[in-house]
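Quick one: structure tokens for this chain, please?
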Amino acid sequence: MKYFLSTILLLTSLYALSGHHASNEGLMPVAKPGQIIVTYKGECPADKIDESIEIVKQTIAYERKNSPVSYSSSPGTWSDGTVGAVDLHDSEEAMNKAFEWQANDKKWSDLYDQVAATCGITVEDFEVVSLTAR
């Protein structure tokens, strides 16, 4: 009887644990329909990448504390060696409000300028592209 109960408990546990695969069979979307993904990408010398990423992180921390519009952002380097960030906005309207705040916030603009200057470029040299999730 002890062997029978142990076997049943083991099989029940395995069945319960295997159930997690069923809910994860499909990939989770990066964004929900209507959300906007914005990428920032700029050339940066290899010896300046870490320094510029630290300023991008400061910029993101500043955004989180001060932006009137909530959005997420992640800094990073692209496979071609450029630096930048990826932002996720809840909607086009929210993205436009965030852009307006950024354009009118001196500290945010100064930080963005610092990222570019560290890389020896200007903010106009950054490639900014948006994608609307569908």
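Helices lie at 2-18, 20-23, 49-66, 92-104, 106-119.
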